[in-house]
Amino acid sequence: MRVRFWGTRGSIATPGPGTVRFGGNTACVGVTTSGGACFIFDCGTGARPFGAELMAHTPKPISATILLSHTHWDHIQGFPFFAPLFVPGNQITVCGPEGSGHSLREVLSGQMDFTYFPVEIGQLPATITFRELGEGTHEIGGARIVAQYLHHPAMTLGYRIEADGAAVVYLCDHEPFSETLWHGNPAPSHAESIVHEGDRRHARFMAGTPLAPHSGRDALCGSHILVVDDDPDIRTLVNKALSQDGHIVIEASGGQEALALIDAQAPDLLVLDLLMPKQGGLEVLKVLRSRPATAALPVLVLTALDDEVNTSAGFDLGATDYLTKPFSIPQLAARVRVCLSRRG
Ligand SMILES: [Zn+2]
Hints:
The protein is α/β, with parallel strands linked by helices. It folds into two domains: about 1-215, Ribonuclease Z/Hydroxyacylglutathione hydrolase-like (Metallo-beta-lactamase, Chain A); about 225-340, Response regulator (Rossmann fold, 3-Layer(aba) Sandwich). It has nine helices and 16 strands. It has helices at about 45-55, 75, 105-110, 195-205, 230-245, 255-265, 280-290, 310-315, 330-340; strands spanning about 1-5, 30, 40, 65, 90-95, 125-135, 135-140, 145-150, 155-165, 165-175, 215, 225-230, 250, 270, 300-305, 320-325. Helix 6 (about 255-265) packs parallel to helix 7 (about 280-290). The longest helix is centred in the C-terminal third of the chain and has 13 residues, at about 230-245. Zinc ion binds next to loops.
């Protein structure tokens, strides 16, 4: 299977220098099997460039399956701009969760009402088939698709697609069922130590899948994170936020101390300030990347230096991600989750 991320943002497309690395489009992930079956997970604005690529480089007529997690705007807004829909002979199957009060066709028609868009859904020349899915296993396009409901204020499905002897899970917008994720004495990363059955079920759904594009708080909790900042207030803030997310947090006030703690405790992730007396964050990063043991350690740079020179210096030296101060707690939690998901 080949997986490509065409849109990774939530809520609204965010073009500009700040989103150059991962793109500014909203949710859309393409999966192509070795047999040529094409799956499109969500139809945010990323569906526009994906549609253009399909038009340019795949055999005609195009046959594709769109799997919508839910119909919040950021997951369907690219649908009217998906070029293969405008070509007669193309076959597009649109799957999505059942039970949202309206049929899938009605919901997608809504944003293409004449008031909002010049082409109504019934005028699209491609053959469009709608299929509403519940939880369970479905055979679609020669692949096995397992669907499971997620926790979100809309009927939302997560998908596990199995083909070519591999599996990929697409889960978005999931929120934990319980604020307390782990039992008092947890074995971190072990699903049965999770308090809420809904969260346990969610962790089991992801288990054993090497690639799981995911948004929402989940079993990535319970990691060891080292926060390096000379400002004690920032350390306390970050520590509190990440501890609440179920992580085990240790702190260092400078570069030397951080390097010693990394050697001694082998954390899963480093949250690193750039401007520190004596040894700055970029120097620490340089040392880490030069050592085999820490060359792949995820590093989230957290700094007030938001200019392009420092941002690209950070990425050039191997920062995994970059978050500028001031930041919000949900932003930090999300970035940490993403960095952790890229381990190994
Ligand atoms: Zn949503």
